[in-house]
Amino acid sequence: MNQLDALRQWTTVVADTGDFKQLSVSKPQDATTNPSLILKAVQKPEYRPLLDETVKKHAGKPLDEVIDRLLVNFGTEILQIIPGRVSTEVDARLSFDTAATVARGERIVALYKAEGIDTEKRLLIKVASTWEGIEAARALEQKGIRTNLTLLFSFAQAVACGAAGVQLISPFVGRIYDWYKKSAGAKWDEAASAGANDPGVKSVREIFNYYKQHGIKTEVMGASFRNVGQIKALAGCDLLTISPELLAELAASNEPLEHALDAKAAAKGDAKKVSYDEAGFRFALNEDAMATEKLAEGIRAFAADAVKLEKLMQESGK
Asked: Is 27 a catalytic residue?
């Protein structure tokens, strides 16, 4: 049994890609996309026609609607290959606007429904884990729209997401690791900070254990991996979303893989229950320099890629 098959014994494997033609190789259960992955895909010759056709078919419509239609076209193609769910992201520029995020999420759901997709079972609306994004997710969940809270770097964000009843969270393992490595500079000890000691891995483990101890139903999906060591240290997490390159690396290894996270063991923990109102959430997030910086940086990066995607569409329409 290779490591990818071993991982599947305990964890739902999700592909982190907009390149849906790679999915038949890795055979994931679910798939996630984001503006950066879609931008990367449409710059490849095999996917550019999907962008051009979307722009041509919906010429004259608002650019934000055409982008949503492109995202849905990618998601619909992905759903023809995978048996599970696809995550489609709301424009990161709406990360601090609850009402606009809800409206955009509802529109994306409507577009999927028009394609015949059972959105309650097969779609997650991806939203940034700001206070406004979490409140938007709460509202969407109350409407029966399932959500995936992304750009999650802190325990406070995870607590607020669990309290809002979101379907799934995506803590960003690799970006947490990046911050601590950069912060340590020459003092960084890679060997001492690997595997179970990786700061990104430790963050996900704390959230996973807390959720299982307190019976919080929100699914935990580790994301943004830099190496297979991080993935192996989280074997047993509810879900892990993994790039095609790291999926291939796991599939190529027959080394033993240990069960790292155990929900039953975590349920016996003794962590105190925590809750936040808006002021408490904002203060807790502010106290976490890593989470504050990486959340802001992530929103800026996704927003910049959304602008680049818009430019490609405008050029295509000329």
From this structure: no
